[in-house]
Every structure is written in structure tokens, then in C-alpha cells.
Amino acid sequence: MELKEAMAGTLESGDIVIRIAPGDGLHIDLQSPVEARFGRQIRAVIAETLEELGICDACVSATDKGALDCTIRARVTAAAVRASGKDIWKD
Asked: Which residue(s) pair with 43 in the sheet?
């Protein structure tokens, strides 16, 4: 799947900024004040969401401000839709 650079999210408390760019393989760079405790879970949610959307090759930069899993999924989905141009909400 062809990707362009895109982002979603804010730096507000309880949110996460996801930036997606074309890449070779999946690379996730995470910055989070809770990375030591929840970094593995945050990366897993990002990777699983991208896999469900059919994106295997991307560079993802995530700046977390304490987002819940549902927020992470929503931001990754929004950024992936913007990056791929694929509207997953249409039939």
C-alpha cells in the first residue's frame, strides 16, 4: 500500500499524536512519560491497528500524553486513512 506522510491527534493530556510516513517494514518510535510501564502495550496497539488496516511498511512516530488504547486505535486509524487515502468507512 502506497503511503504519504500524515498525522492525527493532539498533545493534550489523555491524547496521542501519531505521525505515519512511508517506510520499509514497520518501525515505531514512541515518546511517552509512561513508556517504561506501558510502552510495550502502546506499541502493540499501534502495530495491531496498522496490521488490521493492511499497512505493513511504515515509519510511525508516536508522542503519547497518557492516551487509552481506544484513543490510540482511533488516532492510528485516522492517520492511516489520511496516509493511504483509503476510506475504511465506505463500503
From this structure: none
